[in-house]
Structures are given as structure tokens and as C-alpha cells.
Amino acid sequence: MRRKLCLIVALALTLCISHAIAAPITYSLIPVTFNNDPNFGTDMVTGTITTDGTFTSPSIPYLTTSNILAWSFNLRLGSSTTINLSDTSNGANFFVLGTALTATSRQLLFDFSGLNDEIFFSQDNRPPYPVFTEFFIETPTSNFGSLPDIREHYCTPDTCLGFTNVVHGAASVIAVAVPEPSSGAILLFGIAVIGIALHRQHRNRPMTRTLG
Predict the structure, then answer these.
(1) Is the peptide bond before 130 cis (omega within 30 degrees of 0)?
(2) E-strand spans in 52-159?
(3) Which of 1, 33, 118, 157 could form a disulfide with 97 if both were Cys (CB 3.0 to 4.6 A apart)?
């Protein structure tokens, strides 16, 4: 009985360690499509957002700018042009405004039902094209309009173009967690050790014979 209890405790510790090592967490953005680009046709944004591993709760109800450690997006304009937008790019800038961004171990969510909430990413690009690029997720704000939406902007030396994907509903999943290989390996190792221990316990158990 004591050995089984020890094995249960070991499994619990393995789960806790694997969970702890998963921080920070990288979330993969659910691809966003824009169909109204007159220059390229259909645009798409993909990428990742890395947080410090904070999960929202009653004590931590939302994420802020300080919880975002890194980000990287690919803005595909039509089928021929791709712009990388990341925190390491020239002139990179980002912020989280308001209380709409929340996180679980598996998802990043944005509540589109509020007002003046926004996640904003931008960078300055070298000429010739484009001059700068922006990608942001927002509730109705005084800056860009009265509808909750996801937007991309890019500017050439001649003009600035902006495209919108309107979002309907309240809290929406905007990204899903990318499994961490290290935490998965630790979990599998812990399960393997426990399995070996149980196997040895069963093998070393003394056999009893019933005499008729």
C-alpha cells in the first residue's frame, strides 16, 4: 500500500514539474484571412505569440503588455509577397490595451464585447516596400471604428492600405498553445519510470500455491 502511494505521489510530482517547465508558453495564431486587398487579392496572417506562462484567474483576470515575451507574424499578401512582423524587427512596437486578453494552458482568448480594448503589433520596414506594417485585434475604439475586428495595415511610399476582418460574438479563441517538447518528454519519462516500478513490483510478488 505504501509503495502504491509513493508511485501516485511520483506521478503527481511529474505532472507538476512538466507543467512548470512549460512556462513560457507559445501560442499559434489561428490564421486570419482578408479578402479585400485590391493589390494582392486575398491576404492571410499567421504566426505566434509567446507569453510568460501566466494563466488568468479571479486573482489575475487578464493579461497585460508585460505578459507578452515575444511575437512573430507572417503577413502573406496574395500569393507572391510575405512580410515578417516580429518583436526583433526594425522599429518593432506592441502593446496590450484594456482587459480583453485572457489565457489558459491551451488557448489565448480575446473578448470582443468590450470597448477600447486592443492588442497592437507594428514595425518599420526598410524601403522599397512597404514602409511600415501593422496587425491588431480590437474591440470598438475611438481610433478605428465602431465594430470589433482584426485588422492589417501596410503602407507604401505612395499610400496606406488597411483591411478588416469583422468579428461577431464575445470571447473568441485567437491562438492555441504549441506543445512544449521538453514538458512532454518529462511526462513520458515519469510515466515510464512508474510503469517499470509497477512491473517489478508485480514480478517480485511471491507466488502462492493452493494445495487441494
Answers:
(1) yes
(2) 68-77, 81-86, 93-97, 101-103, 107-111, 118-124, 132-138, 149-155
(3) 118
Q: For the chain, how many structural domains are there in total?
A: 1
Domain membership of residue 62 as a residue range: 22-178
Q: Look-up: residue for cell 511600415?
A: 132
Is 190 part of any domain? Answer: no
User: What secondary structure letter does DSSP report for 174?
Assistant: E
The residues, ordered by sequence, that sit 6+ positions from 140 with a Cβ below 8 Å of its Cβ are 115, 116, 146, 147, 148
Helices (H), the chain: 2-21, 181-203
Does residue 36 sit within a domain?
Answer: yes
The answer to which of 55-59, 150-154, 162-166, 198-202 has the lowest mean pLDDT is: 198-202
Grid cell at residue 53: 506562462
Per-residue pLDDT tens digits for 63-90: 999 999 999 999 888 887 788 889 988 7
What is the C-alpha separation between 195 and 97, in angstroms, rounded? 48
Angle (CA) 116-118-121 rounded to 5° is 150
Beta partners for 161? 154
Q: Dihedral of the CA atoms 47, 51, 56, 62 (nearest 10)? A: -80
